[in-house]
Amino acid sequence: MQEEILNKPEEIQENPGIDSPKAADEHSHPKHPFFVFTVNTLLGLIVLAGLIVLYIIVLSKKESTAQLPVSVQNSKGKAISVVYLNLDTLNIKYELIRNLRKDLEVTVNKLQSELKKDEESLQKDGADFQQKVQEKAISEDKAKQIYEILMQRQQKLMEKKDQYSQMMTQQQIAMNTRLTDSLQNFLKRFNKTYRFDYIIGFKSDGEVLIANDSLDITPTVIGAINKEYQERKK
């Protein structure tokens, strides 16, 4: 478009719709001001204003996505402090848990050993009975008596297994209850000093997928709770 205007100066000069400088003098028209406000100028300002508004909107969106809140706030605008306790580490390093686990393992091994001994004895006597029956070394009445005794022993063994299983379940529940009460009561005393709003339990297979290490209070808790446990044992 600019090339067409530059290549045709004569046509523009000969255009009768534009007055020559002499004609302007003859009519005593005032000189044109430096800036003339026209409809095109108004449209240009509107477009410019729209671009500025659009730029501000885009810039504010970028800033809002880049600037994340540093801390969570409650309805009153107060910052909420949140920390977490690594339960996997606690299960390994808390001395009460280790001692209770050892006691449970001792009990389980004792009961399993007793059941295994009774089961092996029953299997041995059952095999001897089958051999005597096959060899016809005992009478039919005697075989019936031995068979009834073996069945009673088997029934008692099954009942003992169920009984021991219930004992282990109850002991496990009691141990978990003791550990939970111990930890919660300790954390209540512990938090009187630190006054955290939330202490969250974190574990590798839990619902929390990522945790900031700076919020981990596990080493502090383990040191304090083990110290308290040792003092109570004295």
Give the SSE layout:
Layout: H1 2-7, H2 9-13, H3 21-26, H4 39-66, E1 72-73, E2 79-80, E3 82-86, H5 87-93, H6 95-135, H7 140-194, E4 198-202, H8 218-233
Helix pairs in contact: 6-7
Based on CA inertia axes, which overall geometry fits? rod-shaped
Helix and strand run: HHHHEEEHHHEH
The biggest beta sheet reads: 2 strands, antiparallel
Mean pLDDT level: 77
Low-confidence stretches: 1-37, 60-71
Question: Termini separation (Å)?
Answer: 99 Å
Q: Based on helices, strands and strand pairing, what is the structural class?
A: mainly alpha
Strand content: 5-15%
Strand order of the largest sheet: 1-2
Number of strand elements: 4
Helix content: over 70%
If you compute it from the alpha carbons, what radius of gyration comes out, rounded to the nearest whole angstrom? 46 Å
